[in-house]
Amino acid sequence: MKKIGAKRYLSILMCAAILAFAPSCTPRDGGEGTGSASTDTTDPADTAEYIDPSLIVTPDSVKIDATVTVSPLNASTNNDGIFQGWGTSLCWWANRIGYSDTLSELAADLFYGEDGLRLNIMRYNIGGGDDPTHHHITRTDSAVPGWLVLDKETGEYVYDYDADKNQLNVLERAVKAAGDDALVEVFSNSPPYFMTNSGCSSGNYDANVNNLKSSSYEEFAEYLAHVTDYIQNTLGIKVASVAPMNEPNTNYWPAYSNKQEGCHFDKGAAQSKIITLTAEALGRYDLDNVIISASDETSTWKQIEEYYAYSDDAKSVIGRINTHSYDTSNIAELGQLAKDEDFVLWMSEVDGSNTAGQNAGEMGSAIWFGEKIISDINGLSPSAWIMWQAIDNHISRDGYNGNRDSGMVDVNGGFWGLAVADHDKEEIILTQKYYGMGQFTRYIRPGYTLIPCGSDTLAAYDRESGTLVVVAVNPTAAQRTVNIDLSQFDGIGSRVHVVRTSGGSKVGEHWAELDDIYAYDEGFVATLRANSITTFIMEGADMGEMTLEEISPESAAVTGSTPWNNGADVAAKAFDGDVGTFFDGVEGGWLQIDLGAETEFDVLGFVPRSAYESRMAGGVFQGSNDGKTWEVLYTVDGTPAGGYNYAFMKDGCKYRYIRYSGPEGSADFLCNIAEITLYKIK
User: Fold this and answer.
1) What is the 3-state secondary structure (H, E, C) of 516-552?
2) Which of 383, 410, 440, 603 has the smallest C-beta neighbourhood within 10 Å, fewest atoms?
């Protein structure tokens, strides 16, 4: 059981949300570096541990714009709570820059090196290779060579181990730069063209139809296993996983596309077949350490559909589920499915040309990307987060393979990628988006445990070293003062190291190390610069452990207001044990749970409707024993995290009726909630 402390203040919030109130704080009973009272008569100024009390800011001494509670209950349990790291696909930028040792080494250092982003995951693309008579792909980077080429003398397809030397050049250097943390996944966008129905590796003539020939499934699985074996046993690069499909159940991949390789696989039988055959092929090569991942679908709801459609044989050989997060519909449901089914989950691809912030200039792309990282992790609690490609744009006078490069990005707008490769100067131009990602990747390391904290904040904890990392995005044009509430930790450190990125590429901050700040007894108060991303690192924290026991009343009854459009999303769906269902109430909506008798509980858990978390901001939970006189139990003062959030009740909290009312007077006034659960602390 986690130690709360005898003087815990009432109604401690443990939800992963940004809250607009400043709680009063009770000093802890002793404890080094917590600012607590001591009976030691030694002059504190004579000790190395001494911190001038005037340097310690408390929530009572300043105006707090928001409180962020870092809750041990929200600690990720995926992959046993062990974060596996950050990464990028090497497809297609490594194919484009790999001819140059200078650019390849520079990229490895900037993205994987200690002085760079410290990424550790590389997704290497096993190209199918298109018909050499085709010239429809017009990007300079995305015509990835296949490993099988036609021997004109014999008329057979043979392996050319130098065909993809550019991408391999980058892979080898990236693995070396990442060191012991390096994690390699190989993935396929398409089979070789001669294994397809259309004879084109960009897809079928009808993009809704499978493109792998029914007679070529075994041949394609053998191809994937053969290349994997070469990378691991000839090049000496350990491969962790093979993903045989990419966004398979979509109509994105038509023949003769000017963009890239792609291949449609129907959910169910087609996907299950290539999964099981790939596992068998890996077995023939004795690649026992290599797992199968699937299906790298473009949206979280499609990934849910595909999981349920896998055959039992396919499920038995899948070692990890990969999802992309371009469409986050049902994202919390996928995160919950991973918990319920106990599978490891990666967010394996996303990027975009979006911006966020208020008049943020060059920070606009960085702030959007930071908020995307946070929202994905809030919803999924994945064990890895991997972006699409670190370099999406190239500068070159001559172009490549007869095509023209895209040129420099507009750094004040939205753009894909983190950096631009200048082939004429053999340089890599970094953007604020690059530095923004580094605020996460440099400090939240493999082996840590992720702790979702709401729409603008993410935390992580290293049990081995006692290091706590909190990353906060300020997407507003005003400076904000936040209280980082660590009251549920068993212990905290005294100093907090601060690193920040803000401004522009020429005169802005790039992982700028600021003065340390000092913790008070229950957390620390920090200032967030306008349009910035700030990382806080505290050593000496102790997250402790807490176990909750769900209360399941036998005779509970749920009533509520009319659902939207008189539909089926009624109030009872917020108390049915399924986070995928929800109450969709209109303005002024409410729901009420009659537990049947006065029930004592310590924690109130709630789940927002997936993708509509902001609709709970301002919502109110109340309790009553007569159904007439109500007491406020908890107000949702900020946008909660996707998935479960937790509010702690005062000691001896005992009610028969629980009522939730949607927010009033805001743009998101609809009453949306997916689940309410009550708990006792064991």
Assistant:
1) EEECECCEEEEEECCCEEEEEEECCCECCCCCEEEEC
2) 410
CA dihedral 16, 19, 23, 26 (to 10 degrees): 20
Nearest 5°: phi and psi at 616?
-95, -10
103 and 65, same domain (yes or no) = no
| Tokens at 450, concatenated | 């992720």
CATH number of the domain encompassing residue 633: 2.60.120.260
Cβ contact 162:149 at 8 Å? no
The lowest-confidence range among 11-20, 157-166, 510-519, 547-556 is: 11-20
Query: What is the distance, to the nearest Å, from the Cα of residue 343 to the centroid of all Cα atoms in its chain?
Result: 16
558 and 423 together in one domain: no
What are the Cα distances from residue 144, in Å, to 105, 124, 152, 175, 489? 20, 11, 21, 20, 49
Q: What is the rounded CA–CA span in Å between residue 103 and residue 109?
A: 10
In a domain, 6, yes or no: no
441, 461, 489 — which closes off a domain?
A: 441
DSSP for residue 204 = B
**Range of the structural domain that residue 670 is part of:** 548-681
pTM comes to 0.89
Q: How many residues does the chain have?
A: 682
543, part of any domain: no
Q: Where are the beta strands (DSSP E) in 554-644?
A: 557-560, 583-585, 590-600, 603-607, 620-624, 631-635
Q: Compute the distance between CA of residue 183 and CA of residue 170 in angstroms, rounded to an integer.
A: 14
Count structural domains, the chain.
Answer: 3
540-578: pLDDT as tens digits: 999 998 889 999 988 899 999 999 999 999 999 999 999
Q: Is residue 13 part of a domain?
A: no
